[in-house]
Amino acid sequence: MIVLKTFPKGGVHPAENKLSKGKKIEKLNMPETVTIPISQHIGAPAVPVVNKGDIVKIGQLIAKSGGFVSANIHSSVSGKVLKIEPSMDASGYKRMSIIIKVEGEEYEPDIDLSDTLVKECSLNADEIKKRIADKGIVGLGGATFPTHVKLSVPPGKTAEHLVINAVECEPYLTADHQLMMEKPDEILVGCSIMAKAIGVNKVLIGIENNKPDAIKLFKEKAVSFNNIEIYALKVKYPQGGEKQLIKALINREVPSGGLPIDVGCVVQNVGTAFAVYEAVQKNKPLYERVVTVTGKNVKNPVNLLAKVGTPISELIELAGGLPEDTGKIVNGGPMMGKAVNNQQIPVTKGTSGILLFPNKLAKRPKVYNCIRCSRCTHVCPMNLEPHLLKNLSNKALWEELEKERVLDCIECGSCSYTCPAGIPLLDYIRLGKANLNRIIRSRK
Amino acid sequence: MANNRLLVSMSPHDHGKDNVKKIMYGVVLAMMPAFLVSVYYFGLDAIRVNLIAIAACVFFEWFIQKVFFKGKPTITDGSAIVTGMLLAFNVPTNLPWWILVIGALVAIGIGKMSFGGLGNNPFNPALVGRVFLLISWPVQMTSYPKIQVLNFAITDAETGATPLALVKEGLKNGEPFSQIIESMPTSYTDMLIGQMGGSLGEISALALIIGGLYMLIRKIITWHVPVAVLASIAIFTGILYGINPEAYADPAFHLLTGGVMLGAIFMATDMVTSPMTGKGMLIYGVGIGVITVLIRVWGAYPEGVSFAILIMNAFVPLINKATKPKRFGETIKKQ
Ligand code: SF4
Ligand code: SF4
């Protein structure tokens, strides 16, 4: 038996609950209106380039990248711009959004809507990056970092590997898995395009062993690409964390406070690879994505192709409606997703799943005193001591927290998940990080 | 259309199955084999001592919480039951009830609640209670009843010395170890299954090991502390025995008698009062093993496990500081 690779220290095994596994990606009906926030990515918000009353087409640029780290935003529908005003998004805050009333279905003429696979790419590295930037591609794994920025290797560093995160380690979510089963060729072409953009000739795709069908399919398909290798990984959360994935695949440790490029890696999500393919080969901007809608009491857990800006209520409707006893709606997966209090928030580029928890599962566990069992330390993939971080944060010792490397915390939630005393360790740690970051900023 | 029924909290939104209560009741379950052995050999007295100790510990915890903390009583978490049982396991079954109650008061009041309750105490509460009793009532605490198989009659059982005390006494008087062992009615097999005098719960190494394995499987404890304690005792006494087999007891004798198994498996592994990393646990375990042997061989008491654990409890904060886990990406300098 081959020993499967994984990251060595820490990690947990939450119940997988992949209820929507194997469900074909369904296309959502055209919504009546869409609400498209101008800030769907990490970095500066985009700047609207349309006005109230303008008529837009599907794929038309409606907000322009607002800085070096920022991304273009395109309309996901055709119709009329109703208004541009703040509207609640998944963050729980009101953010500036472009609201469009849908009329007809008219596409930008340069988008190739056919299904034919375009394998060859004649663009050079800079042209590829420019195209990716133009089409507003961001990381679709959840972090939504603008892809063209990540693909630009900073001077003085060299990239050796492109690492593709096809782990989908969050329980419940199956969007990436299903996309891999339906669009393997496109994803592989997307990978080789990104490899070309950063000038590496080695692509490593890591897939967790709970997706044997995807591993098999990709191993077969990858044969025709001489630079793509597929790795089956042992199932362990949070293997999708960049640093954990690199450690698992090539046993290199990203230094504390560093980035993957410090060990010669660029990490991209498998969904992003598909978006890159569509942008570069099909001229299609990122205005729709695959979203898993699921939950224990959901009638019909599904994988949907949803347009950015669609209210999540319409997705929930297609999954059989909001179950009676829903106690929590989470935008994303159970470990890192954000709870939202409202069904009207729109799907954005970062929405990988909509998760509906019944009341019983929505509640947090009973809190006891810390019994110093050290399980939090053992499961922390960054080898931090969450119980200690919690105490320091509780005592407002922000500078002590810095010494304990609180900023290395990847907010994976493994500590809170495990703590038998039910202590929300990550809440305290976030508080500590926020305060410490404030102090660090004031030092400058 | 904000929906007020929806809970909004920060991630993670899922929680593992284990909690403090399950852990505590897991420990209680793990103590059952040793408890049954004690009933087998000590009869109703074993049940009596356990009930009194548990009731007293739970009561004092409830009372102190109500009067001094004014908070919600937490006795349902099961930790007071564990302390009560461990205290009972550490005393002779013929101990007068009022001494036992004082032990429970010291264990819970001083050992646990004075530090702020569960999780805040540096010392193992049951051991604080036991050592207090040992110092205050040395005679009652070391007159062990002779074992009788399944005798449920309430009689004043005869008392007798434990193998550990016999050997200590004999060696002090210059008798060779092999002779002492030969003249003793207790064989090593008896010691393994628990057919010998001693504190209520410490007699059967086998029953304690079964409980320990259960806790290992349930992941309530890790292997580090028990293995470090037992291995260091075996090696240390093995060296002494190797030097002079007549002046020192052999390792098997040390491992099977007295409170070594109970201490290594149930007392030293207490999460609250033991170190938090594997490396730290090993250091702590070896410390306990070495101090135990020092006391047993050269100290005034025949048994030293309780003292050894309490002493090492005091070093836990230091050990934790010295054995911090190496952070991910720590060794590599940022370029
Ligand atoms: S401290 Fe941070 S990195 Fe470590 S387990 Fe908790 S959330 Fe994850
Ligand atoms: S897991 Fe919870 S109870 Fe255990 S040491 Fe960490 S904070 Fe304390």
Helix content of chain B: 55-70%
- Rg of chain B over CA atoms, rounded to whole Å, is 22 Å
**How far from one another are the termini of chain A?**
54 Å
Shape type of chain B: globular
Average pLDDT of chain A, rounded to a whole number, is 92
Order of neighbouring strands in the sheet with most strands of chain B: 1-2
The helix-and-strand class of chain A reads alpha/beta
* Proper CATH architecture of the largest domain in chain A: 3-Layer(aba) Sandwich
Largest interface: A-B, 69 and 46 residues
Q: Write down how many β-strands of chain A occur, each being a DSSP E stretch of 2 or more residues.
A: 17
Small ligands present: iron/sulfur cluster
CATH homologous superfamily placement of the largest domain in chain A = NADH-ubiquinone oxidoreductase 51kDa subunit
Span between N and C termini of chain B?
Answer: 50 Å
β-strand percent of chain A reads 15-25%
User: Oligomeric status of the shown chains?
Assistant: heterodimer
Number of strands of chain B: 2
Strand order of the largest sheet of chain A: 1-14-13-17-15-16
Share of residues in strands of chain B: under 5%
Largest sheet of chain B: 2 strands, antiparallel
Describe the overall structure.
With 444 residues, chain A is α/β, with parallel strands linked by helices. Chain A is built from 14 helices and 17 strands. Chain A is globular and about 65 Å long. The mean pLDDT of chain A is 92. With 335 residues, chain B is mainly alpha-helical. Chain B folds into 2 domains: 20-141, no CATH class; 187-321, no CATH class. A two-stranded antiparallel sheet of chain B has the order 1-2. The interface between A and B is large, with 69 and 46 residues. Bound molecules: iron/sulfur cluster (2 copies). Residues 379-382, 384, 386, 409-415, 425-426, 429 of chain A line the site of one iron/sulfur cluster.
